[in-house]
């Protein structure tokens, strides 16, 4: 199925197919969101309690997708972008204080989003496969949206960027929040479905249906490479 007809919610069933976007390399940036060590590290399963092993197993498809699909595709895309003069930017969750007192309220509340990731500690760092090269920019955020919690808005403006291609995790959280913020600032946004992941495939697909056609266009990395004539 083509990106022009895929990932459509009820709102857009029967809507006209969009035109191919015009993506001038000098006005286009890749933004990789929150692919950090903390989300890819796993304990030894045998050392866990039965309840913890159950939770471990529930997360296994996410880790398989990250290592088998998302990270390889994103690394390939970054290499092509660098060869074609496309800006590569990165966002990560990290706090400036050891006790996390500078975090946003959502990152202090109990549960999944209760993240304490001091900026210099290993868990907060980007994974080895997706490290910035040269003087590529990394923004540090204590919010879900990479635009709201950083000076990324100013950076994109100063770079002359009009189109932002989003990759990363989690599709239904920080990726979605960033996409919505970018759209509200009138950036043209593309989300690469095979360069993103959520906790489950169902959450991933549902969120892509929610944001597609209104806040962004959802496509695969191969479809983007074809539109931009990027050699594989």
UniProtKB/TrEMBL annotation:
<dbReference type="GO" id="GO:0016787">
    <property type="term" value="F:hydrolase activity"/>
</dbReference>
<feature type="domain" description="Isochorismatase-like">
    <location>
        <begin position="28"/>
        <end position="222"/>
    </location>
</feature>
<dbReference type="InterPro" id="IPR000868">
    <property type="entry name" value="Isochorismatase-like_dom"/>
</dbReference>
<dbReference type="InterPro" id="IPR036380">
    <property type="entry name" value="Isochorismatase-like_sf"/>
</dbReference>
<dbReference type="InterPro" id="IPR050272">
    <property type="entry name" value="Isochorismatase-like_hydrls"/>
</dbReference>
<dbReference type="Pfam" id="PF00857">
    <property type="entry name" value="Isochorismatase"/>
</dbReference>
<protein>
    <submittedName>
        <fullName>Amidase</fullName>
    </submittedName>
</protein>
<keyword id="KW-0378">Hydrolase</keyword>
């Amino acid at each position: 199925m083509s990106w022009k007809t895929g990932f459509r919610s009820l709102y857009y069933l029967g809507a006209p197919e969009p035109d191919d976007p015009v993506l001038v390399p000098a006005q286009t940036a890749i933004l990789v969101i929150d692919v950090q060590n903390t989300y890819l590290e796993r304990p030894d399963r045998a050392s866990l309690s039965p309840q913890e092993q159950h939770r471990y197993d529930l997360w296994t498809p996410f880790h398989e997708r990250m290592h088998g699909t998302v990270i390889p595709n994103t690394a390939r895309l970054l290499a092509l972008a660098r060869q074609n003069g496309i800006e590569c930017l990165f966002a990560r969750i990290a706090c400036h204080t050891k006790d996390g007192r500078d975090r946003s309220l959502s990152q202090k509340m109990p549960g999944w989003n209760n993240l304490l990731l001091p900026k210099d500690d290993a868990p907060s760092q980007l994974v080895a496969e997706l490290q910035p090269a040269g003087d590529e920019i990394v923004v540090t955020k204590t919010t879900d949206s990479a635009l709201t919690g950083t000076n990324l808005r100013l950076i994109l403006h100063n770079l002359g960027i009009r189109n932002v291609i989003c990759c990363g995790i989690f599709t239904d959280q920080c990726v979605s929040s960033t996409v919505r913020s970018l759209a509200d600032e009138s950036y043209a946004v593309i989300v690469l479905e095979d360069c993103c992941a959520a906790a489950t495939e169902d959450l991933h697909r549902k969120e892509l249906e929610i944001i597609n056609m209104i806040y962004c266009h959802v496509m695969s990395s191969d479809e983007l490479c074809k539109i931009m004539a990027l050699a594989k």
